[in-house]
């Protein structure tokens, strides 16, 4: 099983994410691009979803055809699902569902936050929501592969 850490240094939070059976080649490509950083945002309409915008793919692009990928809506995904919103050239948007959502668009599922880390994920999300709606702090998420 392949794993990576997602951490928010300014929030003093981190979670571990493990591979899932779907889209393992996509996860491999994502891991090849770690370590990495991205501006952390929060979905404002679709539900309780963290959005990491423009995670840079400096080493290997995600060059997969749509027919090669298994897709999943975040509405139907389990809490803790880590998914990607296609490749944006040399960057990708990474989303993490942390509670209920109504976003029924299809995304590329690649990992799952470990069950024992879900409370930490919700804590980070609550702090991110506060920042997005009241404090307007810049929050950066960091990603690194773990053994």
Summarize the structure.
With 147 residues, the protein is an alpha+beta fold.
Question: Would you give an account of this structure?
Answer:
- The protein has 147 residues and is of the alpha+beta class.
- The chain has one domain (3-146): Cyclophilin (Beta Barrel), CATH 2.40.100.20.
- 18% of the residues lie in helices and 44% in strands.
- An eight-stranded antiparallel β-barrel has the order 1-2-8-6-7-4-3-9.
Features of this protein?
alpha+beta; 2 helices; 44% strand; 8-stranded antiparallel barrel; Cyclophilin; 147 residues
SSE layout:
Blueprint: E1 3-8, E2 13-19, H1 24-32, E3 36-42, E4 47-56, E5 72-73, E6 81-87, E7 91-101, E8 106-113, H2 118-135, E9 140-146
Antiparallel strand pairs: 1-2, 1-9, 2-8, 3-4, 3-9, 4-7, 5-8, 6-7, 6-8
- Total E-strand runs: 9
Mean pLDDT equals 92
- What is the CATH architecture assignment? Beta Barrel
- Secondary-structure element pattern, one letter each: EEHEEEEEEHE
Total domains? 1
Amino-to-carboxy terminus distance: 9 Å
Helix content: 10-25%
Which segments are poorly predicted (pLDDT under 50) over 5 or more consecutive residues?
Answer: none
Q: What would the CATH topology be?
A: Cyclophilin
Tell me the number of helical segments per DSSP (H or I, 4 or more residues long): 2
Q: Report strand %.
A: 35-45%
Question: Based on CA inertia axes, which overall geometry fits?
Answer: globular
SS-based structural class?
alpha+beta
Class, according to the CATH hierarchy?
A: Mainly Beta
**Lateral strand order in the biggest sheet:** 1-2-8-6-7-4-3-9
User: What's the gyration radius in Å?
Assistant: 14 Å
Largest sheet: 8 strands, antiparallel, barrel
């Amino acid at each position: 099983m392949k794993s990576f850490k997602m951490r928010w240094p300014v929030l003093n939070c981190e979670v571990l994410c493990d591979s899932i059976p779907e889209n393992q080649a996509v996860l491999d490509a994502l891991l090849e691009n770690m370590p990495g950083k991205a501006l952390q945002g929060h979905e404002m309409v679709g539900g309780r979803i963290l959005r990491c915008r423009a995670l840079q793919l400096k080493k290997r692009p995600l060059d997969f055809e749509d027919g090669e990928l298994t897709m999943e809506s975040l509405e139907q995904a389990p809490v803790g699902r880590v998914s990607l919103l296609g490749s944006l050239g040399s960057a990708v948007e990474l989303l993490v569902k942390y509670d209920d959502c109504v976003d029924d668009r299809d995304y590329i599922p690649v990992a799952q936050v470990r069950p024992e880390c879900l409370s930490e994920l919700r804590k980070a999300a609550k702090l991110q929501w506060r920042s997005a709606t009241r404090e307007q702090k810049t929050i950066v998420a960091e990603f690194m592969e773990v053994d």
